[in-house]
Specification:
single chain, 2,3-Dihydroxybiphenyl 1,2-Dioxygenase, domain 1, 2 domains, four-stranded mixed β-sheet, Glyas_Bleomycin-R_OHBP_Dase, alpha/beta, 19% helix
Length: 109
């Protein structure tokens, strides 16, 4: 079984461009929605009058190097540098997409 998480967006092109710049590819275009794919993670953005900005979009990497690489590209949007989170045994950082959604980059350790 596969799945897709959809978000309403007021800034379709900016948001899709942001995630494509992170390495996501377009899996499917629909009349007012773009479905992106990053590994096995599929998520879509549909052009609407209001945006869904709750929740966290999380990208999971194989190792710290992947997290650090993402941080290198997003340092200006990041809340802080990557750090080890003892509670969840993960190495992570958070950033914000162009519409204000929280985006997490992590690896399990």
């Amino acid at each position: 079984m596969d799945g897709i998480v959809f978000f309403r967006t007021e800034r379709h092109d900016d948001v899709v461009g942001f995630y494509r710049d992170l390495g996501a590819t377009v899996w499917r275009e629909q009349p007012d929605c773009t479905i992106l794919e990053a590994g096995t993670f599929r998520f879509g953005f549909c052009d609407r009058e209001i945006a869904d900005t709750e929740g966290i979009v999380t990208f999971v990497f194989d190792d710290r190097a992947g997290v650090d690489d993402a941080y290198g590209r997003l340092a200006d949007r990041a809340d802080d540098e990557p750090r080890f989170n003892e509670t969840y045994d993960i190495y992570q950082f958070f950033a914000t997409d162009p519409e204000g959604r929280t985006v997490e980059f992590q690896t399990f350790e």
